UniProtKB/TrEMBL annotation:
<dbReference type="InterPro" id="IPR002067">
    <property type="entry name" value="MCP"/>
</dbReference>
<keyword id="KW-0812">Transmembrane</keyword>
<comment type="similarity">
    <text>Belongs to the mitochondrial carrier (TC 2.A.29) family.</text>
</comment>
<dbReference type="GO" id="GO:0005743">
    <property type="term" value="C:mitochondrial inner membrane"/>
</dbReference>
<feature type="repeat" description="Solcar">
    <location>
        <begin position="42"/>
        <end position="129"/>
    </location>
</feature>
<keyword id="KW-0999">Mitochondrion inner membrane</keyword>
<keyword id="KW-1133">Transmembrane helix</keyword>
<feature type="repeat" description="Solcar">
    <location>
        <begin position="145"/>
        <end position="233"/>
    </location>
</feature>
<feature type="repeat" description="Solcar">
    <location>
        <begin position="248"/>
        <end position="349"/>
    </location>
</feature>
<protein>
    <recommendedName>
        <fullName>Mitochondrial adenine nucleotide transporter ADNT1</fullName>
    </recommendedName>
</protein>
<dbReference type="InterPro" id="IPR018108">
    <property type="entry name" value="MCP_transmembrane"/>
</dbReference>
<keyword id="KW-0472">Membrane</keyword>
<dbReference type="InterPro" id="IPR023395">
    <property type="entry name" value="MCP_dom_sf"/>
</dbReference>
<keyword id="KW-0813">Transport</keyword>
<dbReference type="Pfam" id="PF00153">
    <property type="entry name" value="Mito_carr"/>
</dbReference>
<keyword id="KW-0496">Mitochondrion</keyword>
<keyword id="KW-0677">Repeat</keyword>
Amino acid sequence: MTSEDVVGERTSESAVSTIVNLAEEAKLASEGVKAPSHAALLSIAKSLVAGGVAGGVSRTAVAPLERLKILLQVQNPHSIKYNGTVQGLKYIWRTEGFRGLFKGNGTNCARIVPNSAVKFFSYEEASKGILWFYRQQTGNEDAQLTPLLRLGAGACAGIIAMSATYPMDLVRGRLTVQTEKSPRHYRGIFHALSTVFREEGPRALYKGWLPSVIGVIPYVGLNFAVYESLKEWLIKTRPFGLVQDSELSVTTRLACGAAAGTVGQTVAYPLDVVRRRMQMVGWKNAASVVTGDGKSKAALEYTGMVDTFRKTVRHEGFGALYKGLVPNSVKVVPSIAIAFVTYEVVKDVLGVEMRISD
């Protein structure tokens, strides 16, 4: 046997040995990953369930105020029916009964349950990714998320969740607005989706998407950032004896959620009005009214986000961008608070160790 044969044989043996070692390492790695992967999938499922329950419970609790807010946002300025929160709720009760207060809530829950599930889960995942990147950049393995980074994670979560369920939000708005006198009647979620798709085209299902994306950044971002930052501050400082240990009471967490909801919705509200008005465009004669002289007068038509802003302010004043803010404030404060607390409580019940603040 020549020296070349010996070298070749040794090289061959070395290559085979390397391949065997790699195969064994891969096998061990895969065996080690199997159990955690099932646990991780279960944890993801529980997180999604907790988020869905949180969304459904919080929105149903404030459904009458949600409907009144939308009616105030889109009502024709030539025919004012709703002049405020109390008067508006009484008018709905008188003209449509108890069921009228919850009109569109089924569609809202069908949208908000997956939306909330995706939003909370996306926030957790975005927070992990941003925190890992932040620690890599700073070289500090003990670094924690800052309020600004939480704002970014919340914005990512809001955009993902809103985009995934936006067509449901559009038809929910139309189902909520329609009354017995509306020329066009949608019989339900799927009928509304198919009708809009057939009569107005697939792009119509995303009318108002751009202001929604812009609005969701401060809204959802601030919700998460304010909520978690307040919790962290309370745990660290323990002001007025509110916190005796690292666990916050349900009442304290509700207060944190209420503060978060107030800040977020106030900043983003004008974009919500614009989005809702854009969603009504294309709904034939839905906004037409009969004025005092018996003539039909249609509401304004909008061609885009900027056009909607401009026409709303020009014809109705700057205050029109905050139409429905009062019932929305009354709605959002408990809604956001209930959503955050329900999410964490359900995760505790399901045995998920990680919370959003972790």
